[in-house]
Amino acid sequence: MWQGLDEFLHVVEHGSFTQAAKAMEVSTSHISRQVQQLENRLGSVLFQRTTRRISLTDTGREYAVKLKAIKQELIDANNQLQGEQRKPKGLIRISGAGEFVACHVAPKIVEFVKRYPEVEVDMDFNNRNVDLVEEGFDLAIRFGRMQDSNLIARPLSPRIMTLVASPEYLAHHSTPTTPHQLAEHNCLIAMGKRWRFNFNNEIKEVKVAGNWRSNHPRALLSATLAGLGIAHLATDIVDEYVQQGQLVTLLDEFQVTDNASWLVYPRKDLMPYRVRLLIEHLLAQFND
C-alpha cells in the first residue's frame, strides 16, 4: 500500500526523478520504477513526461496534496509518541555571514541548543548566496531586500545603513553633499559597486569605486578608521565610533530605510519539528 509513495513525494518536492534520486540516495531507475508501479496500481497517470521535463497532472496534484497532509500527520504523531515535542533532536544546518549573525543571531541559537541539548547545529559562515534546497540547508540569515519568491523570508531586525569616513580622510578631501559626488572619492566596497540612495522618495543607485574591497564589515571598518576612504556600513557596527568622534556620518538625509536582516527558509510542507521550533525561537527573541 505504501510502496512508491515516498518516491512520488520526493519527485514532487524536487521537480525531477534525478534530483529525487539524489535526495533519497538511490538510482534514478529505482525512482522511475516505483512511481510507474504506483501509477499502475492506482490506474492513473500522476506525471506528464517529456524528454526535457515532468509536470504533475491534475490527478497527480490532488493526490500529492492529500499525501502531504497525511504524511505530516504521521510525522506529528511519531514526534509526539517519541517525545520530540518535548525534546527536539537532530541536525539543523544554517547559512549566514557577517557581524550581525556572529554577534546577535549565534548567541540566540546557543540559548536554543542549551535548552534542547539533543539538537545539533552546523553554522556555515559564507557570504555566498547558497541554494538552501540544493545544498541541504534548513535556513539562512540574509541581509538586504528579499526577492526570491521560492523562499519564505521573515524579518528579524531592521538594519539601517550609513556612510562614514574618518575626520582624517575628510581633512584631505572635500566632504560630499550629494551621493553623485561619491564618484570623486575612494569608496570602500563590500559587495556590489552600486550604492542605493533616497532622492526625494525615489530610490536610485549610484556607481562607486575605490581601492579597498572586502566582504567582511570589520575589514571595511578598519580601513575606514585608518582614513582610507568612505564606507557604507550598518549603523550598529559604526555607532560607537561615531559617538567617540573617530568616524563622521555623511549624507544622512539620502539613506534608504528598507534594509533588514531576514530569516529565510525553503517552502516545505514537511518541516522537521526542531527547525520549526528554532524559527519560532528566533522570531520571538528578535520581536522582544
Automatic annotation (TrEMBL):
InterPro entries for the chain: LysR-type_TF_proteobact-type (IPR058163), LysR_HTH_N (IPR000847), LysR_subst-bd (IPR005119), WH-like_DNA-bd_sf (IPR036388), WH_DNA-bd_sf (IPR036390)
Keywords: DNA-binding, Transcription, Transcription regulation
Domain of life, source organism: Bacteria
Domain HTH lysR-type: 1-57
Example of a GO MF term: sequence-specific DNA binding
Database matches in Pfam families: HTH_1 (PF00126), LysR_substrate (PF03466)
One GO BP annotation of this record: DNA-templated transcription
Protein family: Belongs to the LysR transcriptional regulatory family.
Stated name of the protein: LysR family transcriptional regulator
